[in-house]
Amino acid sequence: MEIVISVTAKVAEYLVAPIIRQFTYCCSYNTNLEKLKNELEKLKIARASVQYKVDDSRIKGDGIQQPVEEWLITVDEAINEVETLIADKEKSNNRCLKGLCPNLKTRYQLSKKAEREANAIVGLHEKGRFDSVSFRTIPEETWLKSTQDFMHFESRKSTLKGILDALSNRNFNMIGVYGMGGIGKTTLVKEVGRQAKENNLFEKVISSRVSQTPQIKEIQREIAEKLGLKIDQESESVRAWRLLEQLKKETKILIILDDIWGSLDLEAIGIPLADDNGGCKVLLTARSQDVLSCEMDCQQNFVVDVLNDKEAWSLFKKMTGDCIENGELKSVVTEVVKECAGLPIAIVPIAKALKNKSPYEWRNALRQLKRNFLRSFSGTQAVAAYSTIQLSYNQLGGEELRKTFLLIGYSYICNVKDLLYRGMGL
């Protein structure tokens, strides 16, 4: 008898209990729907909070964690699905047996689905408790993605290839590029950096302008920023140590130090030297070969020379357009290009200044470029460089602009805020 009772109890447990549970869905219909609405509101609040953090991070330039982005998409889908379910509540109000009884089948289905969705939303809510929604991105040089400033002149193809080959050489870690000011060294080494990264020669390419009076802290800050390091509040020596440690960890990185004028202490900056450089290589530009060979001990140097006549004309035409092919202008333009002596620093601003100008203005510009007092400068290229600066100065619209031009040249101001302070006498 006890065995029969035990068996009967087990049968009841496995058969009756599930039936009762299914029946309770109809009874707890309103409770399940209300719980679903409450959980949905909590989820919407949580989503809004995460979205706010995401938007704030994007404004700061940070990247968003992939799990966060996936969570937001999943939440949006869940919200749409639940809102549709809640809207379907009206179906459960349809009554059967000529309005005498609620539609139990519809209530059962909606109640069961509401319970399941409420549990799913609770799970989503828990997954949305992120410690962080973003990560700090490392800014990449914009010129690494652009080829607009570089023209593939035939005379410079071999130089470009030679520099890339030298950078590929495991025995070289410091390479130099030299040539007079305005010859196009900066444009060339940027193209070297772009191609080197594109061809996976380096994983990272970082550049910094040194200038005649090197600011070690500024160079450190610029390099650190592009490595994702924060070193603002630290001393120069600590900055150097932190940079050194980070650069030694890098497997393939190229640092371009542009426009150096004399000996530069790389160790004081935090750039690894030859015996301890890891995967770091340095590319320098200077006006003097002696600076690169004697003061910086570069293992190989490349010279950048002036453009030939054909290349100078191509660059000038790129800046002005086809208008210079006009028969009336062409002879004057040819003389103007000749006066630029193959210097990009002369060709580009003069071409831009004279674009769409009248023949009279072209002839007047040519006269300015040929003025005899400029011949007191040594060398045709120096004359051309000075001439183009003077012509660009004369083309500025107004005395205030000319004074600003002189102010920038006098004190080497590269910050707009500093320029305003100096200009206002503050």
Automatic annotation (TrEMBL):
The keyword Nucleotide-binding applies. GO terms for molecular function: ADP binding; ATP binding. The keyword Transit peptide does not apply. One of its GO terms (biological process) is defense response. Residues 158-320 form the NB-ARC domain. Signal peptide: none annotated. It comes from the Eukaryota. Keywords: ATP-binding, Coiled coil, Nucleotide-binding, Plant defense. Residues 33-95 form a coiled coil. Gene3D superfamilies: Helical domain of apoptotic protease-activating factors (1.10.8.430), P-loop containing nucleotide triphosphate hydrolases (3.40.50.300). This is NB-ARC domain-containing protein. The lineage of its organism: Eukaryota, Viridiplantae, Streptophyta, Embryophyta, Tracheophyta.
